[in-house]
Amino acid sequence: MSHIRSPIVLMYHGTPSETPESVYSIKSNLFAQHLRYLQKNDWTTILFKDLATPHSLPEKSIVLTFDDGYKDNFQGAFLPLLEHNMKASWFITTDCIGGHAQWLGKISQQSQMLDATQLLEMHSAGMEIASHTCSHPDLSRLSYDQQFAEFNSAKKILENLLSAPVTSLAYPFGRFNANSLPAAEHAGYSLACTTRPGWFGSENNPFLVRRIAIFSGDSPGILARKLAYADNDVSWKKIVSYYTGRVLNKLHAKVGID
Ligand SMILES: [Zn+2]
């Protein structure tokens, strides 16, 4: 029974060595288990920007994305990735480089962000450093011009820092509106991602790339099921209903009109 479809995009946040404060973050030793699982099962990590040419990707391609740019990603994700000869893409909020995640409302060890030196080192090592806007706003509440300004300046700041083009974007909180897509394209991005779960290619739009969210309790077994079903909820109850749905669809198809 194989459900493997590729490429698929995962979304991580923080990778602290201690117990995560947020359900979206994952302890660094559990993240290392994810890497070992992926390597053992022949997944090839590619960069988010590589999805712009989906026909030239390896057979089992996976994109590991990290939102916000937490400082604990350096020890907890970047170094383990290097060790495994794997790569990943980071979506950075440029106002917070070397500071704190201002939108979280509280300052803690785990809200500290990567600094410019670390971003440069990660980029030189083959990681993708991409855009998560300047201030991490709820884009669905902003005008076209406000969104364009966020997309455009974040891109310029990162390109100046890295001396390389930045063409990927992640919408903060996964929120966007009808203006977000044209504003992102106008600002010069070629791909953008949401937080809607699903396979790459289930949205026929490069500015609506889907991602599977990883949560703090996701064991390698849960990761395996997420890769099989491209869903955030892989409880057995959900999986049983998935199969029931498939059987019903087949029955309906049989009695339906050809
Ligand atoms: Zn974010």
From TrEMBL:
Signal peptide: none
Glycoprotein is among the record's keywords: no
SUPFAM superfamilies: Glycoside hydrolase/deacetylase
This protein's UniProt keywords: Signal
Highest taxon of source: Bacteria
Pfam families, alphabetized: Polysacc_deac_1 (PF01522)
Compartments, record wording: Secreted
PANTHER family the UniProt entry points to: POLY-BETA-1,6-N-ACETYL-D-GLUCOSAMINE N-DEACETYLASE, PTHR34216
Name under which the protein is recorded: Polysaccharide deacetylase family protein
Organism field: Methylomonas aurea
Lineage: Bacteria, Pseudomonadati, Pseudomonadota, Gammaproteobacteria, Methylococcales
